[in-house]
Amino acid sequence: MIYPQNALDKLGFTEIKSLIKSHCLSDMGVQMVDRMQLMTSYENINKFLRQTREFKEILENDSPLPIRHLFDIKSLAEKIRVEGAFLSEAEFHQVLLSLQTVFSVISYFNEREGRYPNLEALFEHLQIEKKIIKSIEFVIDEKGKIRPNASPELQNIISGIAKAEQEARKRIDHIFKNAQNSGWTADGSLTIRDGRICIPLLAENKRKIKGFVHDESASGQTVYLEPEEVFQLNNQVRDLEFEKRREIVKILTALSSELRPYVPLLLSYHGLLTKLDFVRAKAMFAIETEGDMPQLSTQPELRLVNARHPLLFLNLKKEGQTVVPLNISIDEQQRIIVVSGPNAGGKSVCMKTVGLLQIMVQAGLLIPVDESSKVGIFKQIFADIGDDQSIESDLSTYSAHLSKMKYFVENSGGKTLILIDEFGTGTDPQFGGPIAEAVLETLNRKRVRGVITTHYSNLKVFANAAEGLENASMMFNNLEMQPLYILEMGKPGSSYAFEIAQKIGLPPHVLNAAKSKIGVHQKRVDTLLVDLERDKKELLETRVAVEKQQRRVNMLMEENEKLKSYLEENRKAILKDAKKEAQSIILNANKLVENTISEIKQNKADKEHTQQLRQNLRKELEKHAEKKEVPAQTIEAAPTELAAGDWVKLTDSETIGQIIDVTKENVILAIGDLRSVVKRKRVQKIAKKEVPKEIRRSYSSGITEDLAQFRPEIDIRGMRGEEALYEIEKYLDKALMMGFSNLRIIHGKGDGILRKLVRDYLRKYSHVSRMEDEHPDRGGDGITNVYL
């Protein structure tokens, strides 16, 4: 329930409906938009929102839905419901085109079964009766005219008309030629008068040919005569034409009777077309306003993230400007938000944005907010906006406000959303303030939710002390004397009355006189609010800088931990391999020494043989020493060709990695989860079998997992410039490593600042070959396609 009824106009919902109607393709869709109203059923709201979101997905990312012809077949079905009534050729053609659209749409969704479940529910259990189309197509052609062979009788009649017309034409041509040769005719050729072919004769010759005069020229010098010989033939044609018309009526009546049992089904088809047009119009409007579906809650709560007033958004978009987003939360703890701040600072827009977006969601419309927003369901929405004074009802401005307050207090509850603009104004502030405070206290006890704007200090103080009420203010740059249109929760705002008056140019002596007339306490409170706002702004800027620095520190610490962990694992593997190699060397050396001693014993210490054995032992040991030195010499002397996918080892350590890419001087390595750029001369190519199985396995599983999780699309809407570029850099590196050739970056349209920043950055990225806008139906210049 909405009170009063004109609240829909004042909040802008009527204008929203007009914009949606402009996207409708049929009168039925327009009528359905007119019937849109506030819903309170969670199931219905959820269904309508999901249908709109799915249609938006089709418009942006899928082939166009084949909605070509939408005619009002309901009225036509009702017409043939009456026994003996029949549709005309044009009306049957409209039914035919509409049914073709219905079956094309159903076929479209059947091909994508399961992808759009909420839209598929629109025609669930709907009977597909193609016999209707076949029956109509047998009688009506593709141009909407009756077929000559719709019945044997009609075919014979049409054939008879053609023959009679041909014979009549042949005879009249002969008579006309003879008359011309005799000089009886006037200038001109054969002409039609009263549906009959006539000869133009000079008036003095009209008795020279027997016939019927149908007309004469304005001057009376020419008469138009139908020869007697042709008269009977033309009568025959006229009779056949009447007979043809009777036969057509007979055929159309029979076809109407044949379709009469299908009237309920035709009405169902009409309902489907109407709903499709309605949902399509809502989806088109959602794309136009960059609307999304928030999380839906059954509780009377609200959390808007980056919300924009849709009408303000569209107006500023035309001028190339952007809307400052609104972030506000209403729940059980902070039920009523009391918004204060300077005039023209955005208080009323803030309140109207909350009210309009809430009504839009409960009417089944997507809203321009971040998808992380949450919107609950309210049973009632009460609004007091603007001046409702009435001469007829003898109501002043303040009386009108009080009448609404009376209604609010008597009828509101825990599931009521109230919206009050300039609470308490319209009378002496000395009395209006306390009355407003008392009303607010009563509404708070009834646990209503809502947004109230005010300049009254007593309401700011009351909101600060009362549980369930929360102060909020519209931020103001008191150095440049400009509103920032940013809502800040948790503190009241100054009205900046004197500062604004000074900027406008009110004389200093007037300002000083005004300042001397206000109380010392009030002046101190207002000064304190101004100072508090300035300090808060500085704190906000400092906090942003610290958070940015903290993110950088956290990132570096995370990379450091990964590197430390990898090096620790690698060190253990190197020590293990070294121990194995040492054991092997010792074992081989022991065997060699034992064999040498055994042979010396066998030869009974023969001097020459002993010397020979010692030389052999020395050579074997020297060979092993040379083996240990070969890798370094080989690497230095003859570097091998490297390619992506090769396994390599760093020459100054035992670290093993796989090559991702090769440049002139450097190679990009994947070392576990890390990516590193090293000089080519610092790596040595090794065979795959030399790579430990656990390294190959972990690398393969990591790549597989990355590939499974990686999507060639990134959404940076709502990010700051530096944050967005950082995310894109990581994203491009991973895309290159995975081997993706093209990507989508969703940055939104707005005023184009983020789009320009992203594209300027990508132009400097050497792996990017080209960029282009997405197709207009799938996001246009709000999405950049990047080709690598």
From TrEMBL:
SUPFAM superfamilies: DNA repair protein MutS, domain III, P-loop containing nucleoside triphosphate hydrolases, SMR domain-like. It comes from the Bacteria. This is Endonuclease MutS2. Homodimer. Binds to stalled ribosomes, contacting rRNA. The gene is mutS2. The keyword Mitochondrion does not apply. Its EC number is 3.1.-.-, 3.6.4.-. Residues 714-788 form the Smr domain. Belongs to the DNA mismatch repair MutS family. MutS2 subfamily. SMART domains: MUTSac, MUTSd, SMR. Signal peptide: none annotated. The keyword RNA-binding applies. Acts as a ribosome collision sensor, splitting the ribosome into its 2 subunits. Detects stalled/collided 70S ribosomes which it binds and splits by an ATP-hydrolysis driven conformational change. Acts upstream of the ribosome quality control system (RQC), a ribosome-associated complex that mediates the extraction of incompletely synthesized nascent chains from stalled ribosomes and their subsequent degradation. Probably generates substrates for RQC. Endonuclease that is involved in the suppression of homologous recombination and thus may have a key role in the control of bacterial genetic diversity. Pfam families: MutS_V, Smr. Keywords: ATP-binding, Coiled coil, DNA-binding, Endonuclease, Hydrolase, Nuclease, Nucleotide-binding, RNA-binding, rRNA-binding.
